Amino acid sequence: MQKFVYYAPTEIVFGRGEEARAAELVKHYGGSRVFVVYGGGSAAKSGLLGRVEEILRAAGIAFSASGGVVPNPLVSTARRMVEEARAFRADFILAIGGGSVIDTAKAVADTVAAPGSDVWEFWTGRKVETALPIGVILTISAAGSETSNSAVLTNDTLPQHTKRGINTDLNRPKFAILNPELTMTLPKWQIGAGAADIFMHTAERYFAPILGNHLTDEIAEGLFRDVIHFGPLAVQNPKDYEAMSELMWCGSVSHVGLTGVGAKGDTAREGDWACHQLGMALSAIGDYTHGATLTAVFPAWARYVKDANPSRFVRFAEKVYGIKEGTEEVRIEAGIQATEHYFRSLGMPITLTELLGHTPEKKELEAFALECSYQKTRSIGGFKVLGYEDILNIYENAI
């Protein structure tokens, strides 16, 4: 087993009705002036926002709420909220929503804690040295941002939109309230995209350049099997509490780092993350659903990189899908096809043509590849390092 440091400080409060503990948890973690971040209105329409506000009010906690976060969250929204939170003199940020809301809350927490700073500075190299504490009431099982140290924003103030991410343990929420019933009114498309995102957070760590921690592999493979089983059930029947609860817990575990522990020095396994980079370029330019961008590129990526370590794909096919017959090449392809079938069962695209709604032309693919490679200034991936030409080839193969 490789040496590692594993850090996962978020307190998970799981179950029906647990949002009632929001004020108690805010106080426990030092909050007295709470800035509430939420999305496009569903939190208000469902009554959840009002219930949380009443819970805070009854506990004597001052609060101010701000909405308008959209999928693929925007720098412009985060900047507006930073000004509002500063004016309110917030000392705690509470996110009510999914990954986009939580990532925006993280941006607000980082920026408010650094007087005179701008959100985008932290997304372009400035180190996060302090942050306001964050709490989460989760309403979408997908991004795992409720337990992760990462956050992603799209800069919509530039001539060409660009999407970037940061990682800092200061962004880990103090607590996350997980009530599966809060996800039962989601559209089936969002549930499917969320299940795909959960699968891919595990895949990005599983297909790592350095291996050697067998328990980590077993945990990852178990998570794969669970989300493959319960994801389609959740899409078929969002009122299925067992399916929705399994999906919610899988989402948090998939991005807390546990499925990537133990292969690079003193850190968690580095992972690959190429599919996320390929997908982020698509959603930066075209504002496509994050989970759907991942399913549209994964099959092409897998077939392009499989020869870097065929045995890893063989193990994936056997341990996740029970595929044991045939040559190594046959089993690898069968595992990729089984994953395509899983994505289909979630209602997700498995090609760029399906994602975009048209067959992309070469110029369009080149624009995606330029965004993904930061105008040919970086490579991506760890399982196999990919430069601009590789990235373009994967996009072409994904048509």
Fold and architecture overview:
With 399 residues, the protein is of the alpha/beta class. The chain folds into 2 domains: 17-178, Rossmann fold, CATH 3.40.50.1970; 188-397, Dehydroquinate synthase-like, alpha domain (Up-down Bundle), CATH 1.20.1090. Helix content is 49%, strand content 11%. The protein is built from 16 helices and 8 strands. It has a 6-stranded parallel sheet with strand order 1-8-5-4-2-3, with helices on both faces. The chain has a two-stranded antiparallel ribbon with strand order 6-7. A hairpin with a 6-residue loop joins strand 6 and strand 7. Helix 12 (310-321) packs across helix 13. The longest helix has 23 residues, at 214-236. It is globular, with a radius of gyration of 20 Å. The model is unreliable at 265-269 (pLDDT under 50).
Features:
399 residues; alpha/beta; Rossmann fold; Dehydroquinate synthase-like, alpha domain; 6-stranded parallel beta sheet; two-stranded antiparallel sheet; 16 helices; 49% helix; 11% strand
Tell me briefly what this model is.
The protein has 399 residues and is of the alpha/beta class. The chain has helices at residues 22-28, 42-45, 48-58, 75-88, 99-112, 119-123, 188-206, 214-236, 241-254, 274-286, 290-305, 310-321, 328-345, 352-356, 362-372, 388-397, and strands spanning 11-14, 33-38, 62-66, 92-97, 134-138, 150-155, 162-167, 175-178. The chain folds into 2 domains: 17-178, Rossmann fold, CATH 3.40.50.1970; 188-397, Dehydroquinate synthase-like - alpha domain (Dehydroquinate synthase-like, alpha domain).
